[in-house]
Amino acid sequence: MCVNAPVLEGNLVNCLSEILWYIDGYHDTLARRACGVPDQLAHFQNYYKPVDRKHKEVDKTNLKEEVLRNHATTLLLLCEDSFLNREIWTSVCQLLVKLGESLMNYSEYLVEQKSNVETKVPKLASDREHYEVLSQKHHITPGSHSR
Question: Would you say which domain of life the source belongs to (predicted)?
């Protein structure tokens, strides 16, 4: 990718703002899964309030694994191919890589959870279990005790 520095800088800022906007309100959810937002970016939350703008209702959708993976991949690629490779930007690059890896890990967690739900099939009883249920366990013979 042969692009000049201002375009990369703009792409990085746009990408980061889209990510922070998308995960706003989910910082605790990400942290519970050990995929937390780095502390330096933790104060970028509670900005997405559609209720405050034009009286729209809050969108109650969950984080989508495809969107998270796309955001993480874009951020990681921008960190590799940009001005962030310079020594002066090392700490910022590490911070953004940590955020990208956290998003990627949570995306993988969502895929795993989705596959677990899809593979959970109700347990069907085997033929042997059916036979044991239908077979007689005790043979009761009429006698003086049964009256």
Answer: Eukaryota
User: Could you write out the DSSP letters of every residue in 89-102?
Assistant: GHHHHHHHHHHHHH
The one-letter amino acid at 10: G
Q: How does pLDDT run across 54-103, given as a tens digit for each residue?
A: 655 555 568 888 999 999 999 998 888 767 788 888 898 999 999 999 99
Q: How far apart are CA 100 and CA 79, in angstroms?
A: 9
- What span, in angstroms and rounded, lies between the C-alpha atoms of 78 and 82? 6
Residue type (1 letter), 136? Q
Nearest to 23 by CA among 45, 38, 40, 56: 45
Q: What predicted TM-score, i.e. pTM, was given to this entire model?
A: 0.67
